[in-house]
Amino acid sequence: IRTPEGEINKSLKKGVDPKSGVRVTLSGEFDYDMKNRFALRSMKELLNIRLREEIREEKGGVYGVGVWTRTNHYPEANYNVNIQFNTDPKRVDELLGSVEKILTEMRDDEASKENVDKVKSLLQREYETSIKENGFWMGSIFNFAYNNEDMRQILDMKEMIQTITAESIKEAAEEYLDEDNRIQVVLYPEAK
Question: Phi/psi of residue 23, each to 5°?
Fold first, then answer.
């Protein structure tokens, strides 16, 4: 299944819970290699930090916000950046405005040193924990073999983490937070 291209904006009404579910997906073509997957992941971690700071901590608009990415190599290399949260239906437009502001800031401005250090620290902890797990090794070996990549790149992760800079994250944001292919879906409760 391929992600539709262009701009798609849909709203629907279903259910009676007094909350709205919001999902935004940005997608595009992807040059599938370890370097680009790592750049996308670093950018995703900063996006997650910024959204949590803005719409959860500063605005108190959500209990949580989820950001995840997906890359495919076959049959065509592509990526998705997904943002999802639940909120009060009256705050949907306000919080979507905050999401848009953060996406623009990430494309236009370099991240603070503090946030870059948070991304590096998070990725370092995840790596140190993951390499102790059989599931990490099985998944990594499978993915590298499936995509015909050199498995020794797994051992380069510590060095790759140290190469993260505000500039490298901004470059990834310019590439992967492109809004030419944007899907936005909002679920509202049905009127009583």
Answer: -140, 135
Q: Where are the beta strands (DSSP E) in 31-120?
A: 65-72, 78-87
Residue 63's CB is within 10 A of a number of other CB atoms, namely 9
CB atoms within 10 A of CB 111: 25
The H-or-E segment that residue 22 falls in is: strand 20-29
**What pLDDT shows up at residue 63?**
86
From the CB of residue 122, how many other CB atoms can be counted at a distance below 10 Å?
16
What CA–CA distance (Å, rounded) separates 54 from 76? Answer: 35
Closest CA to 110 of 174, 35, 24: 174
Q: State the 10-residue block means of pLDDT for the chain, 192 residues long.
A: 92 93 97 96 98 93 93 95 96 96 97 96 96 95 93 91 96 96 96 69
Which distant-in-sequence residues (6+ apart) come within 8 Å of 189 by Cβ? 13, 14, 15, 16, 17, 18, 19, 20, 89
What's residue 61's pLDDT? 85
Give the length of the chain: 192
Q: Look up the pTM and report it.
A: 0.93
Query: Cβ distance 22 to 92 under 8 Å?
Result: yes
Residue 171 has a CB neighbour count (10 Å cut-off) of 15
Q: Is 70 in a helix, a strand, or coil?
A: strand
Q: Using an 8 Å Cβ cutoff, are 184 and 27 in contact?
A: no
